[in-house]
Specification:
Layout: E1 2-3, E2 6-7, E3 10-13, H1 16-21, E4 32-35, E5 40-42, E6 50-55, E7 61-68, E8 73-75, E9 81-86
């Protein structure tokens, strides 16, 4: 994933068990996890704060929360996926950004 010109590792969580685990029982790392489908997350049991972004089906970033502490529940009914990472300083996603998944369109490079 590219954030302000810097590549960040991205991990897809597409199965029920992957989405349920999310960031639970993990140590802080530099990976952004994309939970698909997802529109509702919690931080119960988390040991570290998270950055969370709700993303629409078309890739539009709808809502961003930084440094979300433990024992919180966040939900956005318009979202179809959620990006989450261990909270850290610096640029990340902003409302209105677009997330694109898949191979680049070869005709766009022409």
């Amino acid at each position: 994933m590219d954030v302000s010109g810097t590549a960040e590792p991205l991990e897809l969580a597409t199965t029920m068990s992957q989405r349920l685990r999310g960031m639970l029982f993990r140590d802080p790392d530099e990976v952004t996890r994309l939970l698909v489908p997802c529109r509702d997350i919690h931080t119960f049991g988390m040991r570290h704060p998270l950055d969370v972004a709700f993303i629409a089906k078309d890739g539009d970033v709808l809502e961003v929360h930084r440094n979300v502490g433990t024992r919180k529940r966040l939900k956005n009914d318009a979202a179809s996926m959620v990006a989450e990472r261990f909270s850290r300083e610096g640029e990340w996603l902003h409302v209105g950004d677009m997330i694109r998944l898949g191979s680049p369109d070869p005709s766009a490079a022409e």
